[in-house]
Amino acid sequence: MILYGLTVLIVAIMGVGLYVSRKIQGDSVNYIVAGRGLILPVAAATLMAQSLDANATLGNTDLTASFGFWAGAALPIGLAGCLFITGLFFAKPMNKMDLLTLPDFFRRKYGRVVEVVSALIMVLAFSLLLGGNLVAGGFLFQTFMGTTFVQGVLIISVIAFLYTIAGGLFAVAYTDIIQAVVAFFGSIALIVYVGMNYGFTVPQGMGPTALVQINPLDNSAGSWINLATIFALALGDIVAIDFMERVFAADSPETAQKACFAGAAGTLVIGIPFSIVALSAGSILQSIGVEAGNQAVLYVLLQEAVPPWLAVLVLGGIVAASLSTSDGAILGTSAALARNVLGIRDPGSPGEGVKADGSGLLSAGSDRLLAVTRVMAVPITVLGAFFAIRVSATGMLLVLAFDITFAGLIVPLAFGIYKPEIATQPAALAGILSGSLTRLFFFVTIPTTYAIQNNLLYFENSIVPAGWDGLVTFIAPLVGLTVFLAVAALTKDSYPTPRVTSEGTAPVTSDD
Predict the structure, then answer these.
(1) What is the C-alpha to C-alpha distance for residues 300 and 143, in angstroms, rounded to an integer?
(2) Given a cut of 60, is residue 250 above it in pLDDT?
(3) 461 to 221, 279, 444, 447, 455: CA distances (angstroms)
(4) Backbone angles phi, psi at 100, to 5 degrees
(5) Phi/psi at 510 (nearest 5 deg)?
(6) Which of 113, 135, 411, 412 is the most exposed place for a label (fewest CB within 10 A)?
(7) pLDDT score, position 96
(8) Whole-angstrom Cα distance, residue 401 to residue 236?
(9) Residue 245 near residue 328, CB atoms below 8 Å
(10) 3-state SS class at 506
(11) What is the dotted CATH code of the domain comprising 2-506?
(12) Tens of pLDDT along 143-152?
């Protein structure tokens, strides 16, 4: 029943993607930001779906079962924190700017060089995010459909690719409300079923009250890694091309803000129960004589310990959310490559000085951007599959993706919006490069990343203590902030510091 249920679900999602593809009508604005017309329920559902994908859900349960409540719950807490902070400070101003991609902001504020550099960093980060979702998909196909892990990754990669190029953001916007409802009822039904049939068992020192897991003065329980996870997601995910796509796609600044708040609440309501269930996973599987081994704990639990209808309900929400996030990652990075790296854009489109009133959107320039964005989805999907096969760790890839953006991009974004009078091009470039390169240096010099062995790129050395895993998440953005402020102080009087507006840019006045 699980196999048939998942097959029907995947076919239905693909069908919706193909059906709504006609709404794109040859328009890159429709493809990338759903015509900027998402109403509140749809905008909130699609933001929440970005948080509750297979990457986060599977990472949550695996980390909780292995290291404790705060190790796994840090994922939904951090993601909900990001949506809440975005709603408070970024959703309204970013929606008002009529941007098509997030790197558009960096071009308008800081110029072409910063645009390209920021876009390339986002492409790397979200290829990692895509890889994490493909890992979860690979394990799902391996567990429930009998493929190998690599075959599963390749299958889910093709599905995500076709789903994205068919319908763009429209493809997920029309399915995310259903996904949100399924995920909500699946999460609640799972925790109720486990409580009624097995009870809850909290291993000593691993529950929500074990605050040593987030005590920065005591790293014995991995507190640095858990705190780093929360901060990397809460702040780094603000500079997320998939989240911001949805913010740009909302039909008004007020809708964008309310959608962020609703998405934050939904992320906690649905995500935390998975952490609670995962604490009992070991005792549940032991009671029925099943060994989880190296497989994903949640998948084993759903296969062995709950009725098929409940497994299909939970997995249905996870798969739909995973395709939503994969769509966002592929779509956002492909658009960034086409528009912001290759420089393909229509001078008459929104984000280039004209409001999105429907005029001038079907020009040859827009058609070309749409075509190249779809072509760029090929290398992005291949890169995501490479990361998935090379580093098969969901939670680590999720957090590492936002670690990178936290290190280099959050500072120039925040200052560019709220302190534009000191945010100069040299300061932005210096801050981005110093923060990002510092994080890359630590990545290749520490043998583990978020407690997972670094099989991607590690050079054995005695320079950086291995115990700094987690701590470096805070060091890199502090380096970027310090360099940004120092260069800004030296250059604020000799470089223009425009404020980004919906019409393009405007000079900073004394009233600002």
Answers:
(1) 8
(2) yes
(3) 25, 36, 9, 9, 15
(4) -100, -40
(5) -65, -25
(6) 113
(7) 93
(8) 8
(9) yes
(10) strand
(11) 1.20.1730.10
(12) 888 889 999 9
